Amino acid sequence: MISTSSSTLVVTGAGSGIGRAVALRFLAAGWHVALVGRRSDALDATASLAGSAASRAVSFPCDIAVPQAVDTLASNVLARFGHVDALVNAAGTNIPRRSWSELSREDYHTVLDANLNGAVYCVQAFLPGFRARRSGTVVNINSEAGLQASAKSGVAYVASKFALTGLTQSLNAEERTNGIRACSVFPGDVDTPLLDRRPQPPPAEARATMLQPEDVAECVWLAVTLPSRAVVEQLVVRPR
What is 4-237's CATH number? Predict the structure, then answer.
């Protein structure tokens, strides 16, 4: 079990949705949290929701699709906190025109950059510190689309999430001997702003039956705070 008084979490996509919920869950438990996202105003809004715990949250605006920006991010986070105990890759996107019949190459690369490449860059940036401390947890917010393709999710999103599944598995295969563990969380439908990017966004009554971001945040908390001898490699969570 990690001691929360000096523990540090880095969470991407912290300006909304699951990333925001994860950040608030760990702040409420006493962690220091590096809030990562493209928009500083959204990150600051997340911190403001933490109440008195906001003093332990620091915003780091960054476009994780840019490798050099991620390298700078890691340097700044380590300069501020000294070390990192866990990384949560929660940033992600999708596009309305997502089927094979209408997907553009530009949109394809946009989704892959946000959902996969950014996660790779973040893992590479923080992995040396995990190895040096022989401790670290990576949690990748995946999707049911990373286990079973669906027309609803679209080509690029499915490809990115299947690749994220393999990325997580490769971390466990290669880095477990260095004290590092990784978990893929596979949620079903979650009521987040990402739903507004669907070709036909679901109505309020449908969203009310979905998972909430806080539900997924509890899964992340479990994966990160288990005793170091244990690892949840895959965690599937669906609405009841």
Answer: 3.40.50.720
Condensed to tens digits (0 to 9), the pLDDT of residues 51-71 reads 999 999 999 999 999 999 999
Q: Judge if pTM exceeds 0.85.
A: yes
Alpha-carbon distance of 235 to 183, in angstroms, equals 7
Tell me the residue type at 117. Answer: N
Angle at 53 between CA 48 and CA 59, to 5 degrees: 55
Backbone angles phi, psi at 141, to 5 degrees: -80, 105
CA 181/CA 232 separation, integer angstroms: 8
Asked about 121 being catalytic, the answer comes back as no
Instruction: Report phi then psi at 146, rounded to 5.
Output: -85, 0
Q: If you average pLDDT over residues 166-179, what whole number do you get? A: 98
Angstrom distance (rounded) from CA 208 to CA 206: 5
Binned at pLDDT 50, 70 and 90, residue 6 comes out as confident
Catalytic residue, candidates 130, 157, 162, 186 = 157
